[in-house]
Every structure is written in C-alpha cells, then in structure tokens.
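Two entries, shown back to back:
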Amino acid sequence: AKMQVKLLEHIAGTGQAGDVIMVNPIFFANKLRPKKLARVITDEEVEEELEKKQSQMDELQKQAKAVRGLLDEDDESASSYVLTFSDNQTGPDGKKLFGGIGPKKIMESLRKDCKEFDAYSKEFTKQVSILDIEEQEIVVEEESSSENESSKYKDYSSYSSNGDEAAPISSVKYSSLPKKDKLTIKQTGVFRVKVALTKDLFAKVKVALTK
C-alpha cells in the first residue's frame, strides 16, 4: 500500500514543494527520506493545514477589500481619492513629459500616500502589481445634423432658464496606454491605474498628472 507524504522541495516528475501525494514506501525510504525531500503527513495534519490556509485566504480577502474601498474610484467611499503628481517637467507643448511616470514610481507614491496600502503591500508583496494604465478622455456628444434639420421649430429644451444654451452632454471614457509605452505615463492628464490586490481582486486608482 502507498503512503501519504508532503514534499519539502520540488521534485521533477513528482510534484512541487508543499504538495501532499501518495508514494511507494520503498521510494520514500530510499530517496525521499534520506535526502529530506518529503515527510510523512497524517490526514489530521492535512486538514489542519487546509484550515490554516483558508484562514489566511479569508484574512487576505478581508484586507484587500478594505484597501480597495479606500482607493477604487468606483467605490463611494473612495470617490474623492486621487493620486496626484505635480510639478512635472513638460515639453514646449506643456503636455508631454520628460521621462515619464512608470509602475515603480506610481507604487512608491501610492505607498507613501496611503498607509493602509503600504501595510498591505508589505504583508502581501507577491499579490500586488500594476496590471494596466488607462487614459481618461472626455467625449462631447453632439446632436446629429439630420435631427436639427427635421425640426421646424426651435427646441427650447436645450436652453437654460436664463436664455443661454445648456452645456453639451459629455461622457468619460478610458482607453489603455499603447503597449509600446510599457505601462509608463508620458503626458499630463487624468489616468486610471488598475492595481492587483489579490488574484481575483483589484482597485482602479485615479491618477492626475499636472505641470
């Protein structure tokens, strides 16, 4: 009958460190035990390790959601949070940056600006990374000329109470930076940075770059 062991190191063709597998007793006695590559583990120990791992995952999710609530622009509690980079060196057009703002600088500023994120990123370093950076664009929606021509009467609904025309309807959209920029912001403006907090949870942080 085979025996249950836990691998202590990666073994090609057998498994990764931490895997619990069934092996032939002779293989364990002749190779795994002498080289301290595995140890015998009971069903009770396996259950305890699973419970401990689940507890750690629950704590990770709890902290990640708390940090997301502080940073994510879609969360009501974080609607006013903006990571700002000011006094940037720009070219003659006043928009293009000298150098650029990359993932490393964004993460450093985020850690400095939000102590909760700083503590989380230090405890769960492997979970945190920047997945994407999107640039904000304001799109102004205009009435089509065909609609204007089809009406014989002036449409006063587009005017404000003081007689002035109402402001045109606008919407906000985001588009990812070109792949060639490699997650580096190269001009002033408003951006949205997608920060991974766990494998399945991320925060969309609003970032503003000014001159």
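entry 2 starts here
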Amino acid sequence: MRKLTSLATLLLATLVVTGCSNSKNELADQPVQDLYEKGQTYLQDGDYNSAIRYLDAANGRSNIYGEQTQLSLIYAQYKVGEYYKALDAAERFARTYPDSANMDYVFYLAGLANARLGDNFIQDFFRVNRSSRAVENVRNAYGNFQTIVQNFPQSRYVQDSQNWMVYLKNRLAEHELAIVKFYMQREAYVAAANRVEEMLKLYPDSQATSDALPMLQKAFEQMGIKDSAEKTAQLIEEYKNKTFPTITKPAYGEQF
C-alpha cells in the first residue's frame, strides 16, 4: 500500500510539474500584448492568481507595458497575501523606474505589505498584543509611509500614511516597553535604564513611555543613583498631567 501511495504521489507530482511547464510554454508563445491585456482583465475581475500568471509572463518582454505590468504585479502579489514577493517587486520597480510618477503608490503598497507582515488576522481577532513581534517589518512600514509624507506631500496617500505612522510609532514604543519589562524582571537595571532614556528621546508623548518611567525610577534606586531617581520621580509627576489619545489601527485601505 505504501508503494502504491508513493507511486501515486510521484505520478501526481509529475503531472503537476508537466502541467506547469506546458502552461509556461503556452504563455511564452503568446504575444506580449495579449498577455498584458489578459492579465489586466483578470486583475479587474479580482482573479489575482491568474493575473499574476499572465503579467509575470509579460514582464520584461516589452518596454511599452513594462511599468504598468510591474505596478500591477506588486498590487496582485499584495492582494493574494504574497507580501514578501510584493516587496521584492516594489524594490525592482524602484530600481527600474526611480523617477516614475507612481512611486508614491509603490511606497504605499510596500508600507501596507510590511504592516501586514507585522501582524496577522488571527492575532487581531484574539486581540493579542503584537508589540514584541515582527518589529523589523513595523520599522520598515513606518519608513515607507514616512517617505510618502516627506517626499510626496501632494500624494493621495499622505493622510492614510500619517495615520499609519502614528499607529506604528505607538507599536514601536510598546515594543520598547516590553523590552524594559524583560530587563527589569532579570534585574538588568543598567540595560533597562538605558532603554527608557532612549524612549524619552524617541517616544516622549506615548503612553508606553509614561508607563516605563516608574521602572526607570526603580532601576536608578537599585543602582544607588539617588539624584537620577529623584529626577525621574519629578518626571513621573509631570507625566501625570499628560493625556494620551487612544490610538487605533488604521484599516487596510483600498485606495488603489
């Protein structure tokens, strides 16, 4: 039975590979205009996997459709959840068309892809705190949106990018707070104090920084640095007068 199962699996794999090969050969023989137009039709119909198949076959074969083909591929990869592929496609586009009028759109899609990689639906559904996960993607997303705000002030994506920056900056502050708690639990007071002082520079107006101040005071007390502990106590009193707005996660917009 195992031999039959293995044989069936092998035959199935062979058929799949052969089918893919024949499909690629079939597309390779089609005119690039037909590939591009079919890819765009599938894209408009929401059949993103088929769109990727045709647009990928057209990509690189014609300068006439090159820019729009790559833009469509970035979007289609994003829509099917292939976020790393979307980011790779965005990087290729930036190298190939650095002066494109659509660069704000590319940065926007890259920002959304990085933000998606920073969390997922299951975590959102169960309201799991994601502050200590996928931090690099969060930083990259912040940088993508910041580029739009700074370099493309007239872009239609500026307002949404600003909203994302506020949210992502808060996420980064929460991540730092999680690290401070980790250090305090292990009585690594020097490391904890350094981290909170960095938070005061980078995220002075965040709830996370306010929450970290009592730990900074305790760290100084444990290290016997009384002057710094007293100054931190004064800072805690000042922060009691601050109000911090509730920051909600922006919706993943369909501004395309």
